[in-house]
Amino acid sequence: MNEDRQVRWLFEQQRFGVHPGLVRIAALLSRLGEPQRKLEVLLVGGTNGKGSTAASLDAMLRAGGRRSALFTSPHLTRFGERFVVEGQELPPAEIEAALARLRPQAEAVGASFFEIVTALGLELFAQAGAEIAVMEVGLGGRLDATNALDPRLSVITNVSLDHTAILGNTRELIAAEKAGILRSGRPAVTGVGADLLPILEREGADLWALGREMALETRPLGWEGAEVRLRLPGGELLLRTPLLGEHGAHNAALAAAAAWRLGISPEATVQGAAQVRWPGRLEVVPWQGRRVLLDGAHNPAGAQALARTLGALGAAPLPIIFGAAEDKDLAGVVAPLRPLASRVILTRAQLSPRAAPPGHLAPLWSGTECVQAADGAEALSQLRPEEETVLVCGSLYLLGEVRPLLLGEGAEKRERWQ
Q1: CATH classification of 281-407 is 3.90.190.20, yes or no?
Q2: What sort of enzyme, by top EC class, is this (predicted)?
Q3: Which residues contact 104 (CB under 8 A, 6 or more apart)?
């Protein structure tokens, strides 16, 4: 009954919100004996695509013989998804035991939920004997808990408007926050637009940028992903990635460039790129004779990329199951998707207090046939027999509730804030 007592305590900390800053996480890591110093750390930040980029880089490192760990957030279905070593989630009992040891130190410094999770990941990775940790940045960069680490290399995927109340309401301000994960004189790769590169260059990193030091050509392979040709200073890589969409190819390319700079062989990089899997981000799940496409697009840039991919795949018009957090730019998310919808089933993530009620979403889909469903299960039940391809999108928390229904898996029943 008490086998997850510590994890339940941790999830209670979500309600205290996000508190940017490095003082508490630094104090916590110090009390834990600096577990991050046992690891070679790589930071992956950006507005969108940082999770798939981190997962691709982890796969390339493992193919290259490195004992790699992967830290990502948020999770879809299981808390353990955030802590992966050698491609495997760490056992719940191991996580619970590590958290029991960490909890008194976290309480002593007043650490926030994400600060605790970050420290927990580092403690688990060091304990598991990982050599290198690919750490996905949580929010922004400069004041994110992961930035208390000392990365050998950093990646910034892109910059667009999201979390503007915390990071600033312009791309320039957000870029300055994300640039905080760069380190002077150390290698970095980025896919940000040329107009923002001067902001990143202020940090003095040895920066390679797509469109400048790196040239990218992609050949779409439909539902199979893409072929990517990447020209780099000193060489060229030709690889295939199962990640869908042009942005999926870009993310794979950034990971490949990072692997190149870390000395991973071209052969291992190609092998890792082909093996990457990233659930809930343009993921195709077969279900009852249908193709269900899951995507966590939750900001306008992500929705635009999703819309471009659907158009390129010839998947539209199609039914969309949609639910999103009330505090997002919902009009900006819906605008690029609305023309692609044959109809919309509006629902909400039951475990997310931030989720918008379906009735609040309906006006955004004006001119589109809309029905409402209480939860993901009811939304799936409202699909019509002739609807063979369907999109579920808008909220990673919604995907986290729908995905186990499609796969016939169990799911955690924890309230989700972060």
Answers
A1: yes
A2: ligase
A3: none
Quick one: 235 exposed, middle or buried, by C-beta within 10 A (0-12, 13-18, 19+)? exposed
The interaxial angle of helices 113-127 and 23-31, nearest 10 deg, is 30
Task: Assess contact for 374 and 332: CB atoms under 8 A.
Answer: no
Structure tokens at 91: 């056992």
Coil, strand, or helix at residue 101?
helix
CA dihedral 66, 67, 73, 77 (to 10 degrees): 120
Distance CA 264, CA 257 (A): 10
Contact 225, 243 (CB under 8 A): yes
Q: What is the mean pLDDT of residues 14-22?
A: 83
pLDDT tens profile 170-216: 889 999 999 999 999 999 999 999 999 999 999 999 999 999 999 99
- Please give the C-alpha separations between residue 241 and each of 52, 141, 154, in angstroms, as whole numbers: 11, 27, 21
The DSSP string of 340-379 is GEEEEEE---TT-TTBPPHHHHGGGGTTS-EEE-SSHHHH
Q: Rounded mean pLDDT of the chain?
A: 94
- Given pLDDT bands bounded at 50, 70 and 90, which one contains residue 399? very high
Indicate the burial class of 288 (C-beta count within 10 angstroms; 0-12, 13-18, 19 or more).
exposed
For residue 88, the surrounding DSSP H or E stretch is: strand 88-89
Q: Which of 334, 305, 331, 322 is nearest to 395 (CA)?
A: 322
Residue that wins the pLDDT comparison between 228 and 48: 228
**Residue at 340: amino acid letter:** L
- What is the value of pTM for the model shown? 0.94
What tokens were used for 80?
């353990």
Q: What's the per-residue H, E or C state across 72-85?
A: CCCCCCCHHHHEEE
More confident call, 168 vs 358: 358
Whether 333 contacts 303, CB under 8 Å? yes
3-state secondary structure of 227: strand
Nearest in space to 4 (alpha carbons), one of 416, 413, 418, 417:
413
Cα 281 to chain center, whole Å? 8
Between CA 354 and CA 376 the distance in angstroms is 16
Would the pLDDT of 256 be above 80?
Answer: yes
The beta strands (E) that lie in 242-289 are given as 281-287
Domain boundaries, the chain: 5-275, 281-407
Q: Looking at residues 48-65, what average pLDDT do you find?
A: 96
End-to-end CA, the chain? 25
Q: Backbone dihedral region of 263: left (phi > 0), alpha (psi from -120 to 50 degrees) or beta?
A: left
As its CATH architecture, domain 5-275 has 3-Layer(aba) Sandwich (3.40)
